[in-house]
Each structure stands twice: as C-alpha cells, then as structure tokens.
Amino acid sequence: ASQYATPVEYPDTQFGNSVKTIAAFINGGLNARAFYAAQGIAIFGGYDTHADQPRRLAQLLDELDNTVGAFYQDLARCDNAKRVLTYTYSEFGRRAAENYSGGTDHGQAQPMFLVGPGVKAGVHGEQPSLTDLDKRGNLKTSVDFRNVYAAVLENWLKIPTDAILNKKFPLLDCIA
Q: Per residue in 46-88, pLDDT tens?
C-alpha cells in the first residue's frame, strides 16, 4: 500500500489517507472481504458535537463526501467499484434540541449510510420527526441498525447472521 500510486486526489486527512490505503489494498488485489476506517477522531472530537455543531458538522460531512467520492473514482479507475459496498455508522446519535453551547448532546437514531452499486437508493425507514420525540428528548428510531447489518451480511457478503449476531434479525430491504 505504501507503494500505491493513483491520480485520484484524496483529502489529506487521517480518514482520507486511511481510505486511500483501503483502495490500494482492493486495487492491488488483496483478498479481503471487509475493511474499516474511522473518521472524525482527530477533527476536534469528531462527530461528538456538543459545541459549535454547524461548523464542525459541515467540515466532517465535507470530508466524508470528498473521501468517499475519491474512493469510488479510484475503484472505478481499476474496475473495482462494482465489487464494493461502503457502510457508514455512528455509535450514537444526537438529540434534536440544541444545547447551551451551540451543539447537541448524545441521543438515539444514529445515522447510517450505504454507498455502492449494490445498494437500493433512497431513505429506508421513516424520517425521524423533530417534534415527536421520546420522553428523554431523543429522536425515535425507526430502523434497528442490526436489520441493516444483517442485510449487508446476508445479502451482500453472503454470511449467515446467526453466529455473528446471536439471533436472526429481519433484513432491511436495502441491498439490490
């Protein structure tokens, strides 16, 4: 991977460089089925936006957009884009109400994005209401992350979920 050369420009960030390394592995023929890259850890606490959320969130989403765009451009250059599905997730969501420091506190209904040719386009599940909140002020979750994870495992990777999730979860209809 350190020898990998590409004309595609990735953001010069920890996340951009990690994803570029993953592209090097895939385009170089490494026989692996899953890779992981973390975003936002070095950028002012990442997505943990208790303060200054509008600026920080815009910065993070711009980095995510530019990195994933470069990744798929790089994969397509080597005819590998059709083989790759990208799944983003967060370990926590945010509250709907702004706090005293211009941010939001930890909440539920964390976002997940699936990107790639094997994904059924669109929003899956119901858009959370900003006014119909649970008793703690959290957005109400309409899709369990395990339904998405199970769909990726079974329908994309062709791996039975029982041994991994210790239970059979309904598959979200998100994989083509």
A: 777 777 778 888 888 899 999 999 999 999 999 999 999 999 9
Beta strand segments in the chain, E: 86-89, 93-94, 106-107, 112-115
Q: Parallel, antiparallel, or unpaired for β 86-89 and 106-107?
A: unpaired
| 3-state SS, residue 69 | helix
Alpha-carbon distance of 128 to 47, in angstroms, equals 19
CA distance 87 to 116: 9
Between 53-77 and 14-27, two packed helices, what is the crossing angle to 10 degrees? 20
User: CA–CA separation, 14 vs 70, rounded Å?
Assistant: 14
* Poorest-pLDDT segment among 41-45, 50-54, 172-176: 41-45
